[in-house]
């Protein structure tokens, strides 16, 4: 994975070529048999994972419910391929008034570039929420999004509409493929990587993507989750 996951690298010539082809909307980056095989893998893996992880999902749901008032699951509108909105599911890791309190915390945003909001010690996160975010358990309900075809196991993370409204033409290239649970920057430092570098790594994935790259990224995700680097 070394050649794939070097944050801070300059955009490759191939990526620059991809960016220069932007004509006001997004090119369809799906071609050949690759998307068919990729979808088959997504369906098989998500089905098996949902079955095997059911006890963990149930235990997490009970823990979230017992700690604080509110629903067990949190759904948020995200933007998928070619700008299509969909409901992205997570275990609720924050108190129910989190969105109302967000504006008061904007001055403490630790994500360089200001496009997304991240705080290492976000006071809106519950105790259970802090643990499941660190272990990436909060993301497991997105296996359902993968199963129904809204997401893929591997692909750029889906942004919220407010972020997309601020995107440049280069940033919008992230939306030319189906969003995923993991990708290059998720195994390279996650939230420790500035937004501009996240965009570069996502566009690099779009240009170089293949089944072999997807498999390598899935295997690289395991130690990234276990060591929780950049997770908060």
UniProtKB/TrEMBL annotation:
Domain of life: Bacteria
Entry keywords, A to Z: Membrane, Transferase, Transmembrane, Transmembrane helix
Transmembrane segments: 43-64
Lipid bilayer topology: Multi-pass membrane protein
UniProt xrefs under Pfam families: Bac_transf
Keyword Chaperone set for record: no
Domain Bacterial sugar transferase: 38-226
Compartment(s) of residence: Membrane
Keyword check for Nucleotide-binding: no
Family annotation (InterPro entries): Bact_transf, EPS_sugar_tfrase
PANTHER family: COLANIC BIOSYNTHESIS UDP-GLUCOSE LIPID CARRIER TRANSFERASE (PTHR30576), SLL5057 PROTEIN (PTHR30576:SF10)
The family this protein is said to belong to: Belongs to the bacterial sugar transferase family.
Name listed for the protein in its UniProt record: Exopolysaccharide biosynthesis polyprenyl glycosylphosphotransferase
Source species of the chain: Congregibacter variabilis
């Amino acid at each position: 994975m070394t050649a794939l996951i070097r944050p801070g690298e300059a955009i490759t010539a191939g990526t620059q070529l991809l960016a220069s082809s932007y004509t006001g909307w997004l090119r369809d980056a799906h071609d050949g048999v690759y998307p068919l095989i990729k979808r088959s893998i997504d369906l098989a893996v998500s089905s098996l994972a949902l079955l095997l992880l059911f006890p963990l999902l149930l235990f997490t749901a009970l823990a979230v419910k017992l700690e604080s008032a509110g629903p067990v699951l949190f759904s948020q509108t995200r933007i998928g391929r070619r700008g299509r909105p969909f409901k992205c599911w997570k275990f609720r890791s924050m108190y129910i008034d989190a969105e109302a309190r967000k504006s008061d915390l904007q001055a403490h945003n630790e994500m360089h570039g200001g496009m997304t909001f991240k705080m290492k010690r976000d006071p809106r996160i519950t105790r259970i929420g802090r643990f499941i975010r660190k272990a990436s358990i909060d993301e497991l309900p997105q296996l359902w999004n993968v199963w129904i075809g809204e997401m893929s196991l591997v692909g750029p993370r889906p942004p919220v509409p407010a972020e997309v409204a601020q995107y440049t033409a280069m940033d919008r290239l992230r939306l030319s493929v189906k969003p995923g649970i993991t990708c290059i920057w998720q195994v390279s430092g996650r939230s420790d990587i500035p937004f501009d570098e996240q965009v570069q790594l996502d566009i690099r994935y779009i240009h170089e993507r293949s089944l072999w790259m997807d498999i390598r990224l899935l295997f690289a995700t395991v130690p990234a989750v276990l060591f929780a680097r950049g997770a908060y």
